[in-house]
Amino acid sequence: MLRDLKDDGVIFAKGEKVRKTTYKEQAYKLIREAILYQRLKAGKIYSQEALCEELGASRTPIREALLELQKEGYLVFCRGKGIKIVSLDQEAIREILEARLYLERITAKLAAERADKEDMRYIEACLLSEHEDLIIHREKNDIAKSYQLDHQFHRAVAKASHNRQIYNMLDNILNMYLRFETQTVYHNASSANSILEEHDAIFHSVANHEAEKAEEAAEHHLLRAYRRTLKEYWKE
Predict the structure, then answer these.
(1) pTM of the model
(2) Which residues form a coiled coil (predicted)?
């Protein structure tokens, strides 16, 4: 039986409170995003001083953020030189592509079986944002924004699967995918339109609760995506 917190006295240590985002957390988010969107290039070495200067922060929060990113495999420290962004090798990339293909087939199928009205409203809103982005942000050449909206759609479908474990796995895979994806597809109007058409197909299959079609639509979309930009990594 659940009991009121007061029944057991103090649970959290003195001083533990919900707090505002720290400088370290802000630095972590900005540096990680720069790695994901390949503004910090894989295999290249960067000085901590340069990062501190550009981010306008002191050495301590930047170093703490970098240590956290090192634990997660995004970078390594090079003694006396700075930090090096880790490259993903051919095998790691193939595993990520394979995992994404199977996970997204599962999430689309489960979403078609389990999505409720709220889920569908959210997926549709993500899709509408993508359509608006095609007109607005591509003209501004805001490629990161386009990819964020793209992956927001995929996460929305995964959320509708109502399986948190699968969602968390896919969330991680989508982030890893950005580290090697050739991020030029949204420069091309034809490719961008194809992506939206494929997303539309997934959406309608899920909305109509057609599980097999949703799974097929997800697989079709990802295989075409791999062919568009990742031919050197994906051998069918």
Answers:
(1) 0.84
(2) none
